[in-house]
Design brief:
The chain has 425 residues and is an alpha/beta fold. It has 13 helices and 21 strands. Among the domains are: 121 residues, Rossmann fold (3-Layer(aba) Sandwich), CATH 3.40.50.12160; 127 residues, Transcription Regulator spoIIAA (2-Layer Sandwich), CATH 3.30.750.210; 41 residues. A 6-stranded parallel beta sheet has the order 2-1-3-4-5-6, sandwiched between helices. Strands 7-8-11-14 form a 4-stranded mixed beta sheet, sandwiched between helices. A hairpin with a 6-residue loop joins strand 7 and strand 8.
Length: 425
């Protein structure tokens, strides 16, 4: 009898990629593959890539070199955003056997049955405009928290972003499809689901049997709130112009949707927001934060921000810094702008020197640390429900409060995957 082939996965980038990798892994296991840890020797290695920054491209190359040293006879497959954007560039990396673009990612098993090590690199890609279908996916690493993909692609054309080129048009699962996945997750013991998408607030676009479907993100959250067995939902990231007052008001009164929003800002300068081709200005952003805090003073709000965008002056950066300082938000994810091929931002001048980009990043990361310290301090002494995870590290376990304060405490096995009343100290 032929021995089952082994496969190992590595994911670069966003939570959406993690949910897709997890689904690909389950699909291959169902087809008879044996899953291995990525640091182990395997017959097939699959790297699911990101291409938001230059680092992701470099990291992909380094990982392929590592595989070559460890298992030169293994098949190496590259998929994900980098694979869609630059398939020929990836095919030239020594050791890569198969490059799968956006439309072929979920046909991985079929492609693995057709390739042999030593053949010339096979590229299976297409024009991104041809990608129409939606593949639902979710991650299950432990049962505590699952990332569930409900939307993919983006119809926005921000001047710094390659994601529409890598992921295609905005499209979604149906509400019925999402509910089916959620019921499966509830039956498996999952307690918390994080809703993910490329442009999550744009949920609702799709086709059923060739017929156009029109649903909304608001309708989705209402339907999810009724499902038995899931204790918590989080909304991973939602554009400020798509975060409607009705969604905010619904979350405020929901027992299952957590008081936690992550809302991309990208810049606190209206001039730079215009150059970025963002679909809002800072006043709208401030209004959204104010409305959330009015209804949920305890709500945690995360912010994405980009520093060093072309033409960003010291004054523009000061606008961003002062705006973020004034807002009642809890933490930031700070990205240093990096040039991406085929984006409109490449034509914007002057370019901000790299050392200044790094200085601005550091300044905002320091401010973010202060914001999170202040937010946590405000809740010290309060009793809040914490969902504890299974991982044990140096005798400690971790979990998050409903409003996303990270808690570390002595490991207690009976608390794993349980909601515990905990006093923040």
């Amino acid at each position: 009898m032929q021995q089952a082939r082994s496969v190992a996965f590595h994911t670069l980038g966003c939570k959406l990629n993690y949910s897709e990798t997890s689904t690909l892994s389950r699909m291959l296991e169902a087809d008879g593959f044996v899953k291995k840890d990525f640091e182990e020797h395997a017959d097939v290695y699959v790297i699911n890539t990101c291409s938001v920054t230059d680092n992701a491209d470099k990291e992909c190359r380094q990982i392929v070199r590592r595989i070559q040293r460890r298992a030169p006879e293994a098949l190496v497959v590259i998929t994900g955003c980098y694979a869609q954007l630059k398939p020929k560039e990836i095919a030239e990396i020594e050791g890569v056997d198969l490059v799968l673009g956006a439309a072929e990612k979920f046909n991985l098993s079929k492609h693995l049955s057709e390739i042999v090590k030593g053949d010339s690199t096979k590229i299976c890609s297409c024009d991104i405009d041809e990608v129409q279908g939606f593949n639902s996916s979710y991650s299950i690493n432990d049962r505590t928290r699952t990332f569930l993909k409900v939307q993919d692609g983006c119809d926005y054309n921000c001047s710094f972003c390659t994601i529409p080129l890598a992921r295609g048009h905005s499209r979604s699962d149906s509400i019925e499809g999402v509910l089916k996945n959620v019921r499966e997750l509830a039956a498996s013991g999952t307690k918390e689901i994080v809703l993910t998408g490329i442009n999550l607030g744009d949920f609702g676009k799709g086709f059923d049997g060739g017929k156009k479907r029109e649903e909304s993100f608001y309708e989705l959250v209402q339907a999810l709130d009724e499902i038995e067995g899931i204790e918590r939902y989080r909304i991973s990231s939602i554009e400020p112009n798509l975060l409607s007052n009705e969604v905010i008001e619904f979350v405020a009164q929901s027992k299952k949707f957590m008081p936690h929003f992550h809302i991309p800002l990208q810049s606190g300068s209206d001039k730079i927001l215009g150059a970025m081709r963002r679909r809002y200005r800072r006043d709208l952003y401030a209004d959204r934060v104010a409305r959330i805090k009015e209804l949920m003073p305890h709500c945690c709000i995360g912010v994405d921000v980009i520093v060093g965008f072309p033409s960003e002056t010291d004054e523009d950066f000061k606008d961003t810094f002062d705006f973020l300082h004034s807002l009642d938000v809890s933490y930031f994810h700070v990205f240093t702008y990096s040039e991406r091929a085929n984006t409109l931002a490449l034509d914007i001048k002057p370019v901000v020197p790299i050392n200044i980009r790094h200085e601005r990043n550091k300044a905002l990361r320091n401010l973010s640390y202060q914001k999170m310290q202040y937010f946590t301090e405000q809740h010290r002494g309060q009793n809040r429900k914490v969902l504890f995870e299974s991982a044990e590290k140096n005798g400690l376990m971790e979990g998050y409060t409903d409003n996303y304060i990270k808690i570390q405490t002595a490991y207690r096995p009976q608390w794993v995957n349980s909601l515990v009343d905990y006093t923040i100290n």
